[in-house]
Amino acid sequence: SFLLIQYEGAYLTDGKALSNWDVFTSISGKIADGSHGKVSVDHYHRYPGDLDLMKDLGVNSYRFSLSWARILPKGRFGDVNMEGIDHYNRMINAILKRGMEPFVTLTHYDMPQELECRYGSWLNPQIREDFEHYAEICSRHFGNRVKTFANCTSGGSDIEPLVTAHNIIRSHLAAVSLYREVFQEKQKGKIGIVMNAIWFEPVSDSLADRLAAERAQAFYLTWFLDPLVFGRYPKEMQKILGKDLPKFTRDDLKSSKNGLDFIGINQYTSRYAKDCLHSVCEPGKGGSRAEGFVHSNAIKDGLALGEPTGVNWFNVYPQGMKEMLMYATERYKNIPLYVTENGFGENSTGVLLNDYRRVQFMSNYLDAFKRAMRKGADVRGYFTWSLLDNFEWISGYTVRFGMYHVDSNTLERTPRLSASWYKNFIFKHTSSQSKDDA
Residue 264 pairs with which residues in a beta bridge? Predict the structure, then answer.
């Protein structure tokens, strides 16, 4: 997987406009090390070599996101930037030439700053028109070769989260309707969604904490997925938020009947869930309606759930991968799944070529992935995060997820132990599959 600001660089190159993340990273104190993504790992110019690294590993698909601000610098209020279209066309052709399939995420947290300035982006229902227009441009220019499109809806906003999430969901439904009506029959592609997915374990066996774990999923994951599959918000949210939940239109509900061809799961970590609805919680820890009256934490009785990594949000708990895939399988039945992100991050600005902890992580999580498949999870693919060290959002370059180290001065890529391990893993499993098929 490669995602835009984390990899691409080429800030304002070839007609690209400012994105919301370009602006955010320029604000002093927002990024841990004061860095930005203006260059990142310069994938924009170095993608041929990076694709060669992927081909050498043996991967058969490449997930990446497009820059909305590179394709439509002013959203629907301006022209298509053909330099941006031409760049992605060259990259898609290069991917196919190397025998890999492109798996395209339309937007991953970023958008033209123009839309933020004009009307507040996801806080305004107008964003639906802009996203639909953007999806149409991408489908028209790339859909003859890209057979898998996704939108990443994870997150939303700390400001008015219910409004933000509602506009994200409605925008996705508009894009799905457009794709199905105009492009899908001819292009024969799929459109789905990618979600960050944390597995929540009840902090105790009490009924209150077990229900709290269910509420935690409702207020984190199924908040977005249930409307796209069932046409309604999760019952846990309805019970707590009631009339404060935004309403869907008749057209939204019509679109939701076939809103997903697949679900992408970004699965890294797990947490405990503690009830704060019927129990006493410390002030500020899950006591709000917007959190479902749940306090989530990776620590119980002084011990971590799984193995701490040094990255504050991230502990290693492979069982959470299996549980998450089985949960999605049981809740959403016939909808195929992809693990769209999974990987190991370390707090380091060093080289760390002997990354044995990453190798152990990948081995254990892939084993949990296989256990879920054996139990009936319809998982169609796995994407590791990540090929290269990169710009990790508010952590900047202080956290390393790459199977390849990237020198911050020369941008030279150097393989770590995990790259060799992953190459052998892929070879072993594709070889055994070939023998099974023979």
Answer: 194, 338
Residues marked as catalytic: 341
Tell me the residue type at 319.
Q
What are the distances in angstroms from CA 421 to CA 362, 393, 401? 9, 27, 15
The whole-number pLDDT of residue 114 equals: 98
Q: Please provide residue 67's backbone torsions phi and psi, each rounded to the nearest 5 degrees.
A: -95, 110
pLDDT of residue 369: 98
Q: Is the pTM of this model over 0.85?
A: yes
Cβ neighbors of 343 (< 8 A, separation 6 or more) are 268, 358, 361, 362, 384, 385, 386, 401
pLDDT at 153: 67
For residue 340, how many other CB atoms are within 10 A of its CB? 27
**Rounded CA separation 400/396 (Å):** 10
At residue 437, the pLDDT reads 40
Closest CA to 428 of 57, 55, 54, 95: 57
With contact defined as beta carbons under 8 Å apart, do 271 and 305 qualify? yes
DSSP state letters, 265-320: EE---EEEEEE-SSS---TTSS-SGGGTSEEEESEETTEESSEE-SSTT-EE-THH
Distance CA 279, CA 275 (A): 6
Residue pointed to by tokens 């009936």: 376
Domains of the chain: 4-199+228-268+314-437 (3.20.20.80)
Torsions phi, psi for 340 (to 5 deg)? -90, -15
Q: What confidence score (pLDDT) does residue 349 get?
A: 67
For 11-125, strand residue ranges (E) read 61-65, 101-105
| 76, amino acid identity | R
Confidence (pLDDT) at 156? 44
Q: Which residues contact 70 (CB under 8 A, 6 or more apart)?
A: 14, 15, 16, 17, 81, 84, 87
Residues of the chain predicted below pLDDT 50: 156-157, 434-438
Taking the C-alpha atoms of 96, 98, 100 and 105 in order, what is their torsion angle to the nearest 10 degrees? -60
Between strands 101-105 and 61-65, the pairing is: parallel
pLDDT tens-digit map of 48-59: 999 999 999 999
Cβ contact 186:246 at 8 Å: no
pLDDT reported for residue 129? 97
Q: So what's the pLDDT on residue 283?
A: 74
Please, are residues 103 and 383 in contact by the beta-carbon 8 Å criterion?
A: yes
Sign of the dihedral defined by the CA atoms of residues 284, 285, 290, 293, in that order: negative
